[in-house]
Amino acid sequence: MAISAPPPSQPDADAPEVLEFPDNFLLIDLCGEHDAHLADIESKTGVQILRRGNRLTIHGAQAGRRDAAGILTSLYERLEAGRSVEAADIDREMRMSEAESHPGIARKGDQLDLLPGARIEIKTRKKIIEPRTDAQKAYVRSLFENELAFGIGPAGTGKTYLAVAVGVNMFIGGQVDRLILSRPAVEAGEKLGYLPGDMKDKVDPYMQPLYDALNDFLPGKQVAKLMEEKKIEIAPLAFMRGRTLSDAFVVLDEAQNATTMQMKMFLTRLGEGSRMVVTGDRSQVDLPRGQQSGLHDAERLLGHIDQISFDYFSARDVVRHPLVAAIIEAYDADAAL
Fold first, then answer.
1. Structural fold of domain 107-335
2. How far apart are alpha carbons 133 and 97 in whole angstroms?
3. According to the model, what pLDDT value does residue 107 have?
4. From the CA atom positions of the chain, what is the Rg in Å?
5. Strands (DSSP E) along the chain, which ranges?
6. Rounded CA gap, 101 and 182, in Å?
7. Is 103 helix (H, G, I), strand (E, B) or coil?
8. How do strand 3-4 and strand 17-20 relate by DSSP bridges?
9. What is the per-residue pLDDT for 12?
10. Which of 69, 147, 164, 276 might form a disulfide with 213, Cβ 3.0–4.6 angstroms?
11. How big is the CA angle at 89 (ends 19 and 114), to the nearest 5 degrees?
12. pLDDT value for 99
C-alpha cells in the first residue's frame, strides 16, 4: 500500500502530495514503460508527477493532486493483488466517482457480490472485466439483479460487451445452462445483395460483433465446442420465433432495429430461470423510413414495471477512442438544433 509522507507542521494547501511505495518492482509497473502511465495520469488530472527513488511527488492544483494520489494508490493496490495495470485501468479509475473509486473488492467465489460500495468485477475464462464509468457500474448491477434489463445509449459505451461478459460469468458459474446472443439482421444503410453460402454463412456477417465479444471472454476452442453442443447460440432475431428460452442468458443487441412486433415476440420468449438483456442505440435506427422502432415502444410500454430495469448511457460513458465521444457529442448537438 502506498504511504503518504508525513504532513508539514503547518499545513499548506499548495504543498505537493508525496506518496511512498515500499515495493520498487511494483512501482516500475505502476509508472509504466518510459513512465507512460504517469504521463497519462498527468494529462488527465492536470498535475506534474516527479519520481525519485520510491517516492512520487505530485505538484499542481489541490483537486488534481487529490485525484492523482487516489488513482496512483488504487492502481498500486491493484498491483499488490497480482493484477496488471493498463491504460484502460487508469481511465476507469479517473471516470469512477470519488465515493466509489477506491472500495474493497467483495466477491463470493466466481460470482459477483453486490454489497454496497464493492468494486464490481466480472470473471470470465480469459479475463476479468471491470466497469469503467458509474453508468456502466449501475448497468452491471442491473444485469445481475433483474431478469429483464435494457441498456440504451450511443456506440462504444460497453452495453453489449458488458452484457455478454455477465452472461459468460453466469454460464460458467452454473446459474444458466445456455447463452443465446441475437440481433436483427438489418443492413446499416446499404444493400449488400444476396450473400453466398449456407444459412450460417449468410447471417454470420451480421452477428460478427457478438462473436468478437464472446471470443474476448472464452477460448476459441471452447466457444466452438459449446456452439456445437448448442450451449451457446448466436442467431438472428427472426430465429427466436416459436421458442421458449428457459435457463438461459439471452442478449438482444441492436434492438433499435427490431420492429414493434419483433420486440414483443422476443420479450415473450422469456422462460423460467432465464435472464434477458436488450441493448440498443436510439440514434442508429436502420429500419425503413416510417417504421417504428420496437425499442422505442418497449421504453414507452414497459418503463413502469418494477422488475424491468432501464439503464442509459451518454457520450461521457464512451470507452473507445476519445474521438468517438467527441463525434457523438457533435452529432447530438446538431440534432438538437
1. Rossmann fold (3.40.50)
2. 8
3. 38
4. 23
5. 3-4, 17-20, 48-52, 55-59, 107-108, 111-112, 122-123, 128-129, 148-152, 178-183, 232-236, 248-252, 275-280, 308-312
6. 34
7. coil
8. antiparallel
9. 58
10. 164
11. 105
12. 40
Backbone angles phi, psi at 162, to 5 degrees: -70, -35
Which pLDDT belongs to residue 195? 52
| Parts of the chain with a pLDDT under 70 | 1-13, 96-119, 186-204, 321-322, 337
CB count within 10 Å of CB 162 equals 26
Confidence at residue 189, expressed as pLDDT on a 0 to 100 scale: 45
Residue 194: CB atoms within 10 A of its CB come to 5
Nearest to 111 by CA among 81, 136, 143: 143
How far is C-alpha 66 from the geometric centre of its chain's CA atoms? Answer: 26
Domain 3-95 has CATH 3.40.50.300: no
The tens digit of pLDDT for each residue in 99-110 reads 444 343 333 344
**pLDDT at position 288:** 82
Dist CA 92 CA 285 (whole Å):
30
CA 41 to chain centre: 21
Question: For the whole prediction, is pTM greater than 0.85?
Answer: no
